[in-house]
Design goal:
Layout (H helix, E strand, L loop, with lengths): L2 E2 L1 H15 L3 H16 L10 H9 L10 E6 L2 E5 L5 H19 L1 E9 L10 H5 L3 E6 L20 E7 L2 E8 L7 H8 L9 E2 L9 H6 L1 E2 L5 H18 L20 E8 L7 H16 L9 H13 L1 E2 L2 H11 L11
Parallel strand pairs: 3-4
Antiparallel strand pairs: 1-11, 2-3, 4-10, 5-6, 5-10, 6-7, 8-9
């Protein structure tokens, strides 16, 4: 497969989004997040999303010129309106607001409404750990998981993530979707014409499938069975009922080029350990637990592989499927805006 440097890939991704109708700041923020996902080994949340993002921009599902606005601030709580734009600038604003609130009040909670796909959830928390705070992120997505015992998808795969800063080490990162695997893995498999395990998804008839296209048209299996389905419900209630965004089933699929404006949401919780156990006590106790975990040679600390992948990508670049690279190059060319078949 072709290899491309991080800087070159960022430039290509940003240009593709601008050509599709995104304002440069939004394109830059989005490209940074997607390239970071590829660098961390998360291809399902990387630049493979660009063709669909570009189609959403051109077809009016996403407003490329939207500028996120702080809608309200009550105590330690903030609400950011993404204005149906790309999610990444709105998430940046929300996390910054939550950090400021946590510094002042010990905790900060920021919701994003009228938003879209926000990529790898943990990516948005990197800046939280950089300033020594603990962060949690969650978001909902178009319906992909059925309530337990049902057949009709209502809940999204609804990713959740947490980050815990460490003393003299990379932070501990926990990031997962509430489906057996992230739905983006089916997209990558479909793009590469690869089969998927039968434990990942069901087809439209509710039967296990190894065909990623049929899985994308059907539903995802929840992680951990009924427990995963209930956690997906928990996220839907926090995002849709508490924060005021749309429920997953009210949004058309992110994997369709046309459809409604999703109006989904994200929630970020930032905690200052100094306001609870104290910064030093927190750091000591975290390392005590991680040392106990690491005493078993079979244990790998969450997030450790991503850190290694990022170092390798910064040094060696990223391998991309040739078909995807050509697609990005076409989208980044000014004339490509009139060639919808490239998406």
């Amino acid at each position: 497969m072709p290899v491309i440097s991080l800087d070159a890939l960022h430039s290509l991704a940003s240009q593709a989004l601008v050509q599709a109708g995104a304002a440069l700041p939004a394109a830059e923020a989005t490209a940074q997040a997607l390239v970071a996902a590829d660098a961390a080994g998360l291809a399902s949340h990387g630049v493979s999303r660009i063709p669909l993002y570009a189609a959403h921009l051109r077809n009016g599902r996403v407003d490329g010129q939207a500028v996120p606005q702080l809608k309200s601030a009550t105590g330690a709580v903030r609400v950011v309106d993404a204005g149906h734009g790309l999610a990444y600038p709105a998430c940046q604003l929300a996390v910054a607001e939550a950090i400021n609130a946590a510094r002042e009040q010990g905790v900060g909670l920021a919701a994003v409404i009228r938003s879209n796909h926000f990529g790898a959830a943990a990516y948005h928390l990197d800046v939280v750990a950089e300033v020594g705070l603990v962060g949690l992120a969650l978001g909902n997505s178009p319906a992909a998981i059925a309530p337990w015992g049902g057949k009709t998808p209502l809940f999204g795969t609804n990713p959740i993530a947490a980050i815990f800063p460490r003393r003299d080490a990379e932070p501990l990162v926990i990031d997962l979707s509430l489906s057996e695997v992230a739905r983006g893995k089916l997209l990558v498999a479909a793009q590469n014409q690869q089969a998927i395990p039968p434990t990942w998804a069901l087809d439209c008839c509710g039967q296990p499938t190894t065909d990623p296209e049929k899985g994308l048209q059907g539903s995802m299996l929840p992680a951990g069975g009924v427990k995963g389905a209930l956690l997906a419900l928990w996220v839907e209630l926090l995002i849709g009922a508490v924060a005021g965004a749309a429920f997953g089933y009210e949004a058309d699929s992110f994997f369709a080029e046309t459809g409604n404006q999703a109006a989904l949401g994200q929630l970020f919780l930032v905690i200052d350990p100094a306001a609870l156990a104290g910064s030093d006590h927190y750091a000591d106790r975290l390392e005590t637990l991680l040392a106990a975990m690491s005493a078993d040679p079979g244990v790998r600390l969450p997030g450790s592989r991503r850190h290694l992948q990022r170092e390798k990508a910064a040094r060696d670049g990223i391998e991309l499927p040739e078909k995807l690279l050509v697609q990005l190059q076409q989208l980044a060319t000014p004339s490509s805006i009139n060639h919808k078949e490239n998406t």
